[in-house]
Amino acid sequence: MRKRGVTVGRRGADGLVPVHGNLLPEVAAQLQLGFDSVLNPRVDEVTGPCFTAGNQDDRDEPIERAADQRTHAQRQHDALAVLLTAAAASGALPTLGGAAPTLVVTVRQEDLASGRGHANLPGDDEPISLAAARHIACTGAVQRVVSRADGRIVSIETLDRVFNHHQRRAITARDGGCLIPGCRVPPQWCEIHHVEEHSRGGPTHTDNGVLLCWFHHRTIDSGGWRIRMIGGVPCVRGPSWWDARAKWRPATKSPTRRRDAIAERM
Ligand SMILES: [Zn+2]
Description:
Layout: E1 5-8, E2 19-22, H1 25-39, H2 61-65, H3 72-89, E3 103-108, H4 109-114, E4 118-120, E5 128-129, H5 130-138, E6 142-147, E7 153-156, H6 165-175, E8 191-194, E9 209-212, H7 214-219, E10 226-230, E11 233-237, E12 249-250, H8 255-265
Parallel strand pairs: 3-6
Antiparallel strand pairs: 1-2, 3-4, 4-5, 6-7, 8-9, 10-11, 11-12
Helix pairs in contact: 1-3
The protein binds zinc ion.
């Protein structure tokens, strides 16, 4: 009991923060349960990708597995991020100064406008990238403060950036989980991605929001997958190893929509 403890270290030269500690077995078990619920969800799911059109183009399982090249440790890291975000958004955490714990990301106005520069997290002198700040801001557990070079506060995060519960439920019914083929993260652990970026005028509308897991949300600009809304329907284009023809394909993990698509083909 005396030896229990967790320490969060200082950010190293590689930009990463070391975490060390000794957990009591029941705490470790709870953490593992949390990881498992994010990584191996026991949900009623059909395996494999599903496209609402062009079934003959579906890819097989081996190629799908290659879609997730993260190590076990990396997957657990991402699962921890999901659990922390979900806890902060649940409203069940103790409040700080009357409000739920909120990660405040500060960005300079000119950096935000130019898309370059950095943002800051509280209690950390080292800046983070604007891309990282943008992803955090999509989750809704964040308040964004934009300030001028002289320190004047220009704006605080506008609520319309965050999809509300009604929109989230509608998007969940349509997408059913992370949209990336082969990814099994269920909707409750997904974030809503603005397909057209909010800072570039993309509206917070169901026609512009899709479900992505924590990992795919953060790698959507670099991972080779592309998402586009075609007539309000989410479409995915895969990297060349997955689809040599690089076609846009309507995608969903929604059980209802998949059943409908199968019925239509028969
Ligand atoms: Zn995913």
